[in-house]
Amino acid sequence: MNSLDIRAALPAAAVSDEALWWVEAFVRRLIQHAARNAPPSLSQRLEEEWLADLAARRGQMSRLRLAIGCCWATRVITREHVAANVPATASATGNEIMTASAHYDSSFVPRRTTAVVLIVCLHGVLIYSLATGLVHKMAAVIPPLMQVGVTEDVPAHHPPPPPLQPNLAPTRLEVPEPSFTVDAPSDADTLRGAPLEQPQPPPPSPPKALNRVPGGPGKGFPNTDDYYPAASRRLGEKGIASVRVCVDASGRLTADPMITQSSGSTRLDEGALTLAKAGSGHYRATTEDGRPVNACYPFRIRFEFRD
Amino acid sequence: MGGPNRDVRMSLQTLRVLEAFLENPTEQLSGADVQKRSGLASGTLYPILLRLESAGWFVSRWESIDPSSAGRPRRRLYRLTPTGLARASEVFASFGRGVPA
Q: Any idea which architecture B12-64+73-92 has in CATH?
């Protein structure tokens, strides 16, 4: 049965209660252990005193801190040899007053000396490292941080179309004059001759050439840098992806963008698609004779590190 | 070696313990009470309590309760001795702080 099965089999509350019980037992054992390591004349008193103070504590972390602190207190008390001079007066009746003489030792001196020695040693190691060039060797081993910069490559903007010159020259439509003849009947009751020819419609005029300017990313379009995939940055990937977008006259996407030419990296392609979607509403619409129209067009997104 | 009323080396932690008692010099406090007032860790507090008791600044006794009826173990209560009160007052006066109210 694996751990997941166990979790499924046991109610969470039961697991929690059991954990709390274990913590409580551990804390009590820790305090008892600490007190029993104290000088024998103080051991019983300290155990009872600390367990009573433990009972006044709320919260498992607070109780655990108390227990750990008691372990430390035992070390200090033992070192100071208080037990040699302090008679324990714990009794069942509990009203005796304990007084004792103090014994002082220089318990902090060894600790302080140890700390000073450690600091001196650390400084020695550091100075030795600097003197022998160890730091330089380590610096040579550690690869330099990759400088990453992203340049936004928006496809070259087409120059704005020249203002339209209104063609004021009148257009003459060459309409062939319908020619038909009417043979006047000689007799009003009978009509003679071929039926009347219908007038030929004028030939369709040739399609007029439109001044079409394809759209592209416009003002407020997101920065490529913000969509450079983090993994690609770390791996040093760069490339150019071509994306086809369909944009309405207001610059909004009308369909999901598509990759028409991969950058060579799936991550970069996804980043390009995300960027293209995020740019909806910030595209410059394609114009025909100056009028924005719905249209689809490709553009390129370049992911590249800046020097 | 040494005896009651011996000078106690003053540290910031010791001063905080004394300050906890000087809030009400006649009050008897358990280690847990002193810890709440002084904010000291137990590893620091209990050695100081024992040290001050050994020096005659404190006396301690067991709480007079019946643990079975009280539903909790009896606590060890500490109290300033007159000597301890006088010495603590001197210490705080020498630091220019006066005795805490």
A: Orthogonal Bundle (1.10)
